[in-house]
Design a protein that fits this description.
This protein is of the alpha+beta class. The chain has 2 domains: 1-32, no CATH class; 34-137. The chain has 5 helices and 6 strands. The protein has helices at residues 50-60, 68-83, 92-106, 108-118, 124-137, and strands spanning 2-6, 11-17, 24-30, 37-39, 45-47, 89-91. Strands 1-2-3 form a 3-stranded antiparallel sheet, with no helix packed on it. A 3-stranded mixed sheet has the order 5-4-6. Helix 2 (68-83) runs antiparallel to helix 3. The longest helix is centred in the middle third of the chain and has 16 residues, at 68-83. The mean pLDDT is 88.
């Protein structure tokens, strides 16, 4: 009955009519993709998991004035960048850098929170250097 693209043209929503009973229903069609593998720091590989990115961003944005929609948009941007690459493997390091890129634009406090865990700041001096770099860039 009706078809239209959804999810930034990555899927198609179809409104259909059952020939037998006459009921209407909706179906979504999305192209199958080759699974993406994430290469961890210890060289182990695991399947890509969107929930891990979302979880890290949620922790960084805890008690910040950031809506659920903004968080979802940020995860979508990171994921779009990941899947637009040619390779079927990506390092966890590259994913972390992408998250920081988008968090820096979204909220400086969330960015520093994420960076402090991701970059494993060992002492206050390292943390202060990152803060100074952030202040200079803004």
């Amino acid at each position: 009955m009706d078809s239209r693209p959804v999810d930034d043209n990555t899927a198609i929503r179809r409104r259909r009519l059952c020939d037998v009973c006459g009921k209407r229903f909706t179906s979504y069609e999305k192209a199958e993709t080759i699974p993406l593998r994430v290469v961890k720091k210890d060289e182990m590989r695991e399947d890509y998991d969107r929930a891990k990115i979302e979880s890290g961003i949620l922790r960084a944005c805890h008690k910040r004035p950031i809506s659920a929609e903004q968080i979802e948009e940020t995860v979508d941007k990171v994921e779009r960048d990941i899947f637009n690459r040619e390779s079927r493997e990506i390092s966890s390091n590259e994913i972390g850098e992408l998250v920081m890129k988008y968090l820096q634009d979204l909220d400086p406090v969330a960015y520093v929170r994420f960076a402090s865990v991701y970059r494993e700041f060992k002492d206050v001096d390292t943390f202060m250097k990152e803060l100074e770099r952030l202040v200079r860039s803004n």
